[in-house]
Protein: Nucleolar protein 10
Organism: Tetraodon nigroviridis
Amino acid sequence: MQLSSVNDVKIYNLSHGKSLPEWLSDRKKRQLQKKDVDVQRRIELIQDFEMPTVSTSIKVSGDGNFILATGTYKPRIRCYDTHQLSLKFERCLDSDVKVVAFDTLSDDYSKLVFLHCDRYVEFHSQQGHYYKTRIPKFGRDFSYHSPSCDLYFVGTSSEVFRLNLEQGKFLNSLQTDSVENNVCDINPVHYLFATGTSEGRVECWDPRDRNRVGVLDCALSSVSEGTQVQGLPSVSALKFNGSLSMAVGTSTGQVLLYDLRSSQPLLVKDKFYNLPIKSLNFNNQLDLVVSADSKIIKIWNKDTGKMFTSIQPQTNINDVCLYPNSGMLFTANEDPKMSTFYIPALGPAPRWCSFLDNLTEELEESPESTVYDDYKFVTRKDLENLGLSHLVGSSLLRAYMHGFFMDIRLYHKVKGMANPFAYEEYRKEKIRQKIDESRTQRVNIQKLPKVNKELALKLMEEGDEEAGLASRKKKGKTLPSILGDDRFKVMFENPEYQVDEQSEEFRLLNPIVSKVGKKRMKKLRLMAAAQQVAEDEEEPEGRASSEEESSDDDKSWVEEVREQRRLLRQEDRDRRRQERKEADRGTVLLPQFYQIRAGEEFRSFKDVSRKQKLQKASLEDRLRLEEPSGTSATADSAVGSKQLTFTLQKSEQHKKQQRAEQEHHEERKKLRRPAEHLSSGRGRPRPLL
């Protein structure tokens, strides 16, 4: 059971709480009730008061002894006995049930039940399925006229079909001016028949002479000042109250109260949700109207339109039914569980559940905050955006906490004038959210920065490894990454901070940095493994110490640094050689001219070619070529060549120097031999006595 308070009216949700599975045994259910607090506070007013999937409609017999509910799947009808607080029977059908009704003559299940299913109407009695017949058009609603035993069907046709149950045949239909008819109802006092059309009109007929007695244009009357109309309002709900009152609900969310003696509505109540009205009921004890759409149930005064209270379930509403002469109501929802609400302000609890009056006193300890209907909460910033700051302090704004309450009609009107494209912005925002949700299901790719991508990738990999090692520890905490630090943000955005990997400084430092990073990761792995071993455990034999490992690591990176330096020198030499080649390509070679020395004659070109061969040949080749000719040949060959003469003189000097060094070396050997002889002990003098 759940307690809420709306406009100082307490509302008890009797169906709130967890549902126990049907396959559980009674023993398991008792165990769950002892352990779970929510299950303990759950009140199962009627046993199995639910449907397999969805409940579509719900009705209570006139005497209050039976509750009929329809739902899916599969299409079925269930009957509950209020005296036994349990399910009486369940019957499956061929198609979904749209409308269920009792025979109003007896108001007792034991007589007759009518079920309307698409193109068919079924009759059920206490013994089971009684009869089934087909109607000419698809139906949407029907009403039973008890004095003449006629069933009136309305649907996707301009005709209202009549089926006489006494004669067992269809009678002449009633021809309306509309294309389709949505709902119908019969006044319980003077039996006036009324049907609501898709054009927003209500046509009233007298069943005695089958003539139309009046037409009400509800579509035009539902449009008032400040009402936002998105289409032609059609009649979606219709209900008589007494002999002169009638309530009409439209597809745009307005409820119109009529006096049958006037063509103008007495009151127009807008629910501000723009949803079709699905159900209308009256509470004659307090002069209240209970109107419901798919989102909310509102209870308000039929004379003034003042809000009494409201109920907003967690699921969409399909139908609402009031239990006669009590404060209890049932709802059929888009949910397997059918809801039951009890409002003590509307009336006492029914006789079959009178214990609710005692339980309600225990649930007043945690009431919810008050909800103001027909008002919109806005802050000062919202007022500034709407241009309504000048209304602060006036009667149009009611101060509450950090903002104000303002009339919902005024808010919608001003919002439409201030931002006429609000719907388009809302639609774009919803589309963007859908796209973002679909993107989260894809593979997440880490985005690298535009600058220093290699460095960022390296930091990401190291961060993942450190996080993996830290997760294995009991109390490990990961250090913040450089990528997420604003102080280093410029390093990955400004191109001036791009690391030049080809520079000399980077190539010399990279072995050291990479080795330090490897050592750090190795140290982290060792620390993670050391936690699994006791601190007092000795180091196993044969395992190298950390100092030896560190020395080996130092030697390795020293070798890498030397290798980088050698490569840099080699690249520098290659670069210089390339520059010289490019410089030589740019120079123009000019012809060279030689002048013959004074006092000498030019003999022939053969001597010139011989001189060129001598220049190219080695020193031994030159001596071999010059041995037969002697000194004169050397002198002749030196004609016109200073280089050859200098080479020969240099070779003679070299020979003399080698000869002198060899003589000096032999003299040193002779002097060394007596010293070795003395050191061997042979020439050692004897000691004196």
User: Anything to note?
Assistant: Residues 307 and 373 are 7 Å apart (CA to CA). The chain is about 30% helix and 25% strand. The mean pLDDT is 77.
